[in-house]
């Protein structure tokens, strides 16, 4: 019976790989031991082609601090300006290569304008403001001079579910306990294991309560009012936690493709821009450059395969974001004037 089970599992593994139904490897998050020693949540030293969607393979590396991207020292170099960029999968850069994510492109542009600037990609899939607040708290160890919180349109609705932070905590506990702690390094490199993770995630998502209005929430129902107020309070808490350390906070609004194509669905980001202004938090709305580009949603996003931004979309958003940040303290004094920045475009 044991041999029969092993043969059956081997056949399922081969079938999953042959039909590309699940990757044989994927980006993994930290163990309990790594969580205690690193500010980031991604297991360090990974270098792989992520094939979660066989149509959208992309290169991912993780550095020694547990963030996506190239290695960086814990301590800043003399004269270095460091930006901590938090957010969900739009900040992390799902389905694009490391150097084409928004934080990476922002760093390239700011380095050209403002000297020694480093942008730390602290984005994690499925995060919202309450999870990002914890990432910021952990990320203070890298001594940021500026914190960016990126907003995606599902961030308000996601406040009505169990937080991703709690799911990741449970994941860390499970894979750090015997016998899974011994088997996990092997299991995580199998298509069968990764397929089972997808099934569990899909089941969990179906069990979560669904918001009434989704991305295009009008704000007229009581659920949306409640969740928006929760987001507002969480944003204020982040602002107030950074204020004693004299670290500025900027909100980066990255719209969905629905907003780019349908103006009547922009109520959510209009509400957020007003909320940020009332809270004294500068906000950069990336809908402006995306619409101004005149490009189709299929060019700016990974449609029809996925709704995340494309490398082209990030490439349009990054210069605009850099230009806006360069006009704000504390970068204003480091960056060249608008004429100089125009010469570098």
Topology of helices and strands:
Elements: H1 2-18, H2 32-37, E1 47-50, E2 58-61, E3 81-87, H3 89-92, H4 102-114, E4 117-123, H5 129-139, E5 146-151, H6 164-176, H7 180-187, H8 191-207, H9 222-242, E6 249-253, H10 257-261, H11 267-278, E7 283-285, H12 287-292, H13 297-300, H14 311-326, H15 338-344
Helix pairs in contact: 4-14, 5-9
Describe the structure.
- With 345 residues, the protein is of the alpha/beta class.
- The chain has two domains: 1-60 and 163-208, no CATH class; 72-161 and 215-345, SGNH hydrolase (Rossmann fold), CATH 3.40.50.1110.
- 46% of the residues lie in helices and 10% in strands.
- It contains 15 helices and seven strands.
- It has helices spanning 2-18, 32-37, 89-92, 102-114, 129-139, 164-176, 180-187, 191-207, 222-242, 257-261, 267-278, 287-292, 297-300, 311-326, 338-344; strands at residues 47-50, 58-61, 81-87, 117-123, 146-151, 249-253, 283-285.
Flag low-confidence runs.
Answer: 210-218
Using the alpha-carbon principal axes, give the shape.
globular
Share of residues in helices: 40-55%
Mean pLDDT score, rounded? 90
CATH topology label of the largest domain: Rossmann fold
CATH architecture field of the largest domain: 3-Layer(aba) Sandwich
> If strands are numbered along the chain, what order do they take across the biggest sheet?
4-3-5-6-7
Strand content: 5-15%
- The helix count comes to 15
Kindly, what is the distance between the CA atoms of the first and last residues, rounded to a whole number of angstroms?
66 Å
Radius of gyration: 21 Å
The overall number of domains is 2
CATH class of the largest domain: Alpha Beta
Structural class per helix/strand content?
Answer: alpha/beta
Query: Mind telling me the CATH superfamily name of the largest domain?
Result: SGNH hydrolase
**Secondary-structure element series:** HHEEEHHEHEHHHHEHHEHHHH
Largest sheet: 5 strands, parallel
The count of β-strands is: 7
């Amino acid at each position: 019976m044991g041999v029969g089970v092993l043969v059956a599992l081997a056949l399922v593994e081969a079938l999953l790989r042959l039909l590309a139904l699940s990757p044989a490897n994927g980006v993994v998050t930290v163990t309990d031991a790594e969580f205690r020693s690193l500010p980031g949540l991604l297991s360090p030293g990974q270098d792989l082609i992520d094939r979660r969607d066989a149509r959208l393979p992309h290169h991912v590396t993780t550095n020694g601090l547990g963030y996506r991207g190239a290695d960086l020292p814990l301590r800043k170099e003399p004269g270095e300006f460091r930006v901590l960029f938090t957010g969900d999968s739009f900040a992390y850069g799902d389905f694009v290569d490391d150097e084409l994510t928004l934080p990476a492109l922002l760093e390239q542009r700011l380095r050209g304008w403002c000297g020694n600037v480093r942008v730390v990609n602290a984005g994690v899939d499925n995060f919202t403001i309450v999870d990002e607040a914890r990432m910021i708290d952990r990320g203070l160890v890298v001594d940021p001079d500026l914190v960016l919180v990126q907003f995606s349109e599902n961030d308000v609705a996601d406040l009505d579910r169990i937080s991703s932070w709690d799911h990741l905590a449970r994941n860390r506990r499970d894979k750090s306990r015997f016998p899974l702690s011994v088997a996990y390094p092997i299991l995580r490199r199998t298509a069968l294991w990764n397929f089972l993770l997808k099934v569990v995630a899909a089941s969990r998502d179906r069990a979560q309560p669904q918001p009434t209005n989704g991305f295009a929430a009008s704000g007229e129902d009581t659920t949306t009012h409640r969740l928006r107020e929760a987001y507002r309070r969480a944003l204020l808490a982040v602002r107030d936690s950074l204020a004693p350390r004299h670290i500025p906070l900027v909100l980066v609004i990255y719209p969905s493709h629905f907003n780019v194509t349908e103006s009547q669905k922009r109520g959510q980001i209009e509400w957020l821009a007003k909320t940020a202004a009332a809270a004294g938090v500068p906000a950069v709305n990336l809908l402006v450059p995306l619409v101004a580009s005149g490009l189709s949603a299929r060019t700016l996003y990974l449609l029809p395969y996925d709704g995340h931004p494309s490398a082209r979309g990030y490439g349009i958003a990054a210069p605009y974001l850099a230009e806006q940040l360069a006009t704000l303290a504390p970068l204003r004094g480091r960056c060249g004037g608008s004429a100089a920045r125009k010469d570098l475009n």
